[in-house]
Design a protein that fits this description.
Oligomer: single chain
Number of helices: 12
Number of strands: 15
CATH architecture of the largest domain: 3-Layer(aba) Sandwich
CATH superfamily of the largest domain: NAD(P)-binding Rossmann-like Domain
Structural class: alpha/beta
Order of helices and strands: HEEEHEHEHEEEEEHEHEHEHEHHEHH
Strand content: 15-25%
Distance between the termini: 24 Å
Shape: elongated
Number of domains: 2
Helix content: 25-40%
CATH topology of the largest domain: Rossmann fold
CATH class of the largest domain: Alpha Beta
Length: about 350
Amino acid sequence: MDSIDLEVLKTCSDWIAAGKSCELVTVIKTWGSSPRPEGATLGICEDGRVVGSVSGGCIEDDLIDRAHKEGITRTRPEIVTYGITADEAHRFGLPCGGTIQLAIEPLSEKSQLPQLIERLAQGELVARRVDLQSGEVSLGPAGPGMTLQVSEAALTTIHGPRWRLLIIGAGQLSRFLAQIAVGMDYAVTVCDPREEYRDGWSVEGVHVVHAMPDDLVAELRLDSRSAVVALTHDPKLDDLALMEALKSDAFYVGAIGSRSNDRKRRERLLEFDLTPEQLAKLHGPIGIYIGSKTPSEIAISILAEMTAVKNGVLLPEVMQVGKAKEAASLDASPDACLLDPTQRIV
């Protein structure tokens, strides 16, 4: 599963290769409420096909209508603004009088999309600079903290995974979690020293590592843009890795298991040199309450909680209470120990 950003780039590259005229539209600034964030992209082909989104519908309709009526005639990038007046905001579906500014770039073989896509396939974080006068494009390395920049002279956009996710354990749940996370622009690594689990496990764009998880956690030097999720149910693999992760700056550290297992895990971790403050960073039972029972639903639950933490959103209390009830029901089940770990309620 490609991220939306990568899907737009690949589709536009295919259009260029097929000899089609096309444009890349990028959200560069918003005021007030806006359906899409800065950096969101849209590709428009001369035949009316589109990929991606910059507003959720109305602005796309206007851009497509203009392309049909006027054709794709731009020879250099142009900055346009929608929603300046209340009437325009209402017309284009921008709530609360929001305003959105877009860069519209005509694409060609000189736009370096194949080169950008190739570097992204290698896991690089790339800064793409477009000269707003000439349309000339250059590519260079980007730091994890870099963001979109625009001036009268140039537009620089950042492409590639800006967040890291380490998954401990190569199982069925890990597969769903990794697939979705890749589509969310995470650079995903799966670590499992057990050959029987690792053999045959493969997800496009995911790096699979044969190593002890705690050693890999230390090697990765986790920062505030990193997350760790432990899914093995094996304390020998999970606990030491969690201990190292909880000492790091990782924004999210979570482990699967019932409420009873989570309580025992916390007791074990306190026997190491973790402080109560460090242990308090552990998310467990992992995920938010959505009634999840299948591996795919559990993956969504985990990533929903990760996203809330990443964005600084406090989850409603009902989600936490529901999660505790869900975990308690598993504790009470006499058959719980017979279930496949990938099928268990989080």
